[in-house]
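Query structure, 139 C-alpha cells:
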C-alpha cells in the first residue's frame, strides 16, 4: 500500500472512531486544508488532516490494542472533542484537550466525567465560541 493510500485509510478510520457525521468531517477537512475531499489533497495536506484529528482526541493505533488512548463511548464527549479540535485547527485555542475549559465551565476535572446535562452546556458554549470565531461546524 502506498503512503498516500495509507494516509487516506487512516483519515477514514479516524472519522469512524471519532464518530463524525459527513458534514462535520468535511468541515474539519475544509478548516484544515481548504478542501472538502481528502482525495483531492496533497500528501502534506493529508498529514495536516491527520494532525487535526489527533488534536481532536484521536490517537492512531500503533501495534497492540493497548497502545492508544481509548475514544469515549459517550457521543456528547466525542462531540466536545470534535468542537474543541475545530477551534484548535482554527488556531483559536492552543490546548490539546478541552479539560481546562471544562474545569472552568463546570468544575469537573476530566472531560470524560461530564454528565449529559453538563455536556450539553459545554457543547452549546463551544458552538457559540465557534460562531464568534467564524469556525464552521454542523450539528
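Result returned for the query:
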Amino acid at each position: 500500500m502506498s503512503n498516500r493510500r495509507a494516509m487516506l485509510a487512516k483519515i477514514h478510520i479516524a472519522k469512524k472512531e471519532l464518530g463524525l457525521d459527513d458534514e462535520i468531517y468535511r468541515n474539519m477537512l475544509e478548516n484544515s486544508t481548504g478542501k472538502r475531499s481528502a482525495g483531492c489533497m496533497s500528501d502534506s495536506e493529508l498529514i495536516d488532516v491527520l494532525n487535526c484529528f489527533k488534536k481532536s482526541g484521536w490517537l492512531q493505533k500503533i501495534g497492540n490494542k493497548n497502545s492508544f488512548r481509548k475514544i469515549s463511548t459517550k457521543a456528547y464527549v466525542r462531540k466536545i472533542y470534535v468542537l474543541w479540535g475545530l477551534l484548535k485547527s482554527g488556531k483559536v485555542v492552543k490546548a490539546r484537550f478541552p479539560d481546562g475549559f471544562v474545569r472552568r465551565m463546570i468544575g469537573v476535572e476530566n472531560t470524560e466525567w461530564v454528565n449529559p446535562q453538563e455536556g450539553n452546556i459545554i457543547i452549546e458554549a463551544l458552538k457559540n465560541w465557534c460562531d464568534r470565531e467564524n469556525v464552521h461546524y454542523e450539528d
